[in-house]
Amino acid sequence: MVGKVLVVEDNELNLKLFCDLLEVHGHDTRAVRDGRDALAAAREFAPDMIVMDIQLPHVSGLEIIAAMQAEPALARIPIMAVTAYATPQDEERVRAAGAAAYVSKPISVMRFIDAIEALAAGSPPA
């Protein structure tokens, strides 16, 4: 399923990798390097899903997810968290904040794409 994906990631290499992977699989992407711009970008771009780094400078991905969950127009958008935080407790915390999917860094390309495709299809990733 083709869809619009907002990618919030401060690391240039990861940002390029995520956008390239998504575009190869037919998704239209918008890149946001500074988490402080994520809410405005989400409102303007109206993505079908969001890939959110959790460890960002200035504002954490968890704070951004909480802010998005508080806005009815954004709360419906599924969010896939991508983070170096890789313990089961970290995943629990990220999902409790409102992320529909969770992929730990360094990413497995197949796991990343499988999670994106599951979200695009409207089903929770395995």
Describe the structure.
The protein has about 130 residues and is of the alpha/beta class. It is about 45% helix and about 20% strand. It is built from 6 helices and 5 strands. The chain has helices at about 10-25, 40-45, 60-70, 70-75, 90-95, 110-120; strands at about 5-10, 30, 50-55, 80-85, 100-105. A 5-stranded parallel sheet has the order 2-1-3-4-5, with helices on both faces. Helix 1 links the parallel strand 1 and strand 2 (about 30). The longest helix has 13 residues, at about 10-25. The relative contact order is 0.17. The mean pLDDT is about 90.
In short:
With 126 residues, this protein is of the alpha/beta class.
Q: How would you summarize the topology of this molecule?
A:
Blueprint: E1 4-8, H1 12-24, E2 28-32, H2 38-45, E3 49-53, H3 61-69, H4 72-75, E4 79-83, H5 88-97, E5 101-104, H6 109-121
Parallel strand pairs: 1-2, 1-3, 3-4, 4-5
